[in-house]
Recover the amino acids of this structure.
């Protein structure tokens, strides 16, 4: 992400086709009647407050877009005078952007907790992607950080409503699907809890993706005494999430320590390989795509190339894997090439990386 010339934040967003767009991320208002314990704009915290009128938001976005600084919009908001009143203003702003300013590009619109079915329907009609932030993996965990939100009725049910509307639109509504976000570490939850929910959302709701935000205490909030969640933990969650989304892993394939957390010293794929020594070494020239994607150092692109090249002949050395785009040194301890184990060194453990 980068600051633009106006000092606002511009974030890169990835579309389903792999294209990346620059997105202006903005709040309709930072006035909020919610009192979430971790949030810097919670109702009882003394901070400067401001709001956009729908016309102001639309005009400001049009100016920034025409200046060539952004390609799209991410619009969220604090909750002011109820979710539906706030959603009215958000939707009015986006309608102006679409109709008055004729902007056809990417818009990500946040669905606020407790939004009505009518507001959810209009949101999925207007936006490329919508999102409802679960924040925590269960009602009990949510109560520890946002006791005034109802996990089922205000968060989970709107996600299911959005799913039904998107499915029934024949691809016209929210073509980039929906996403959610978890605040990691503030509620005392384990990685196992978060990833079990993510895996279920990918299966049941066809979630586009989950985001994981490492908790960072904000001064003047009830949780400002808690330590910040290490960035490495957030990184490991994204690595595990990547395996669920692109590598054919299931939740049951993930390896957790006795506390229910991912390893801080080895990435989730490497942990899987070390916990399933009976499945390795794997013959690269005969293994299925599903099996190859479980080899450390091999990813979807390199596996696709390996499968294509196998039809033309036998792979016999690590140089061919490197040419395919694989991390051959990482893969070497777990593979056979034409029946032979390639030369390799197997470190006792990998260094932590963030």
């Amino acid at each position: 992400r980068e600051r633009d010339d106006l000092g606002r934040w511009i974030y890169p967003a990835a579309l389903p086709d792999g294209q990346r767009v620059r997105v202006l991320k903005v709040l309709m208002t930072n006035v909020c009647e919610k009192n979430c314990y971790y949030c810097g704009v919670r109702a009882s915290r003394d901070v400067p407050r401001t709001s956009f009128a729908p016309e102001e938001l639309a005009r400001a976005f049009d100016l920034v877009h025409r200046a060539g600084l952004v390609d799209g919009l991410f619009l969220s908001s604090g909750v002011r005078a109820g979710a539906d009143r706030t959603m009215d203003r958000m939707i009015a702003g986006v309608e102006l952007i679409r109709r008055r300013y004729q902007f056809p590009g990417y818009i990500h619109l946040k669905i606020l907790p407790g939004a009505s079915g009518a507001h959810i329907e209009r949101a999925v009609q207007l936006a490329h992607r919508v999102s409802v932030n679960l924040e925590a993996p269960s009602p009990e965990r949510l109560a520890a950080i946002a006791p005034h939100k109802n996990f089922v009725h205000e968060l989970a049910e709107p996600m299911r409503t959005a799913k039904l509307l998107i499915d029934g639109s024949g691809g016209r509504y929210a073509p980039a699907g929906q996403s959610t976000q978890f605040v990691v570490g503030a509620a005392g939850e384990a990685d196992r809890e978060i990833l079990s929910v993510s895996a279920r959302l990918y299966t049941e709701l066809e979630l586009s993706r989950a985001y994981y935000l490492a908790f960072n205490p904000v001064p003047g909030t009830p949780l400002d005494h808690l330590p910040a969640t290490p960035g490495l933990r957030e990184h490991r969650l994204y690595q595990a999430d990547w395996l669920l989304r692109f590598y054919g892993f299931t939740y049951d394939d993930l390896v957790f320590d006795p506390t229910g957390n991912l390893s801080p010293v080895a990435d989730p794929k490497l942990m899987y390989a070390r916990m399933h020594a009976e499945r390795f070494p794997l013959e690269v020239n005969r293994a299925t795509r599903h099996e190859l994607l479980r080899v450390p150092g091999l990813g979807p692109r390199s596996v696709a190339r390996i499968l294509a090249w196998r039809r033309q002949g036998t792979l016999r050395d690590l140089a061919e894997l490197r040419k395919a785009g694989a991390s051959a040194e990482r893969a070497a301890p777990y593979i056979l090439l034409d029946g032979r184990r390639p030369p390799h060194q197997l470190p006792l453990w990998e260094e932590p990386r963030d």
